[in-house]
């Protein structure tokens, strides 16, 4: 597999009345062709902001990407402005995004067919008839019954699960090389969530599309992902293959997340405390106040950099790095 996306030193901040919120802080990672990568962490850790930054969808003001590069198929996405012709040709075509809440992503005043046809007309220059046929075919592929009729419905006429299937269909219309699923199944019940996850897994395998799964659910990642990036306080604090991280979690935060995964007959162990303020970021390890493995040395050392310990496994914990 070839390298599809390489992100180096990505940093994004928001200017507020209370100060500058450093939502993403020097994040680096890569994605290969056809690979499924999980991006996990608590709410507010920077998962969604990091992905929106790649797509240049951060509202400015108050937010802006202040540093870094994101090379996609040899092109740095961050060198373009938000509305540049070059980026618009990639966004929705070579890279697609499935958002968390389809009712805020779909236009309530336009039919499903018209919204899907706009994508095909813009990126593939299809005429009205061809766009309609391709849209209907993709709706059928994502399991929407009677797609010809449903294509003429408005978003409010569909259930939540159906609307999210429409979002998956729109993301796949132009056969993209990369799909970013931002908590795409969070608002759905467990049964519909499982159906959609299996659907996305089948589609990305069929079209050899890379997928970033942004989620707080490690159970989903364990089943579908090849690699995992764990984020905390705007940084990636552990990365590795699913097998490496599940067999030997190296960061105390990752251990805490794994202990929160429900297991039959076992009591859940929540991570105590709250994430740190991203305005007054501590110089030491940001997880220090919540860490049950902290030592006196942790209060004197700067936060560790992400360091590889073997294979694809890396961590940003001074104590665990010393043990290695």
Automatic annotation (TrEMBL):
GO biological process, one term: peptide transport
Keywords: ATP-binding, Cell membrane, Membrane, Nucleotide-binding, Transport
Annotated localization: Cell membrane
Lineage top rank: taxon: Bacteria
Membrane disposition: Peripheral membrane protein
Signal peptide, first to last residue: none
GO cellular component, one term: plasma membrane
Alphabetized Pfam families for the sequence: ABC_tran (PF00005), oligo_HPY (PF08352)
GO molecular function annotations of the record: ATP binding; ATP hydrolysis activity
ABC transporter domain: residues covered: 5-258
InterPro entries according to UniProt: AAA+_ATPase, ABC_Ni/Peptide_Import, ABC_transporter-like_ATP-bd, ABC_transporter-like_CS, Oligopep_ABC_C, P-loop_NTPase
NCBIfam families per record: oligo_HPY
The family this protein is said to belong to: Belongs to the ABC transporter superfamily.
Name of this protein: Oligopeptide transport system ATP-binding protein
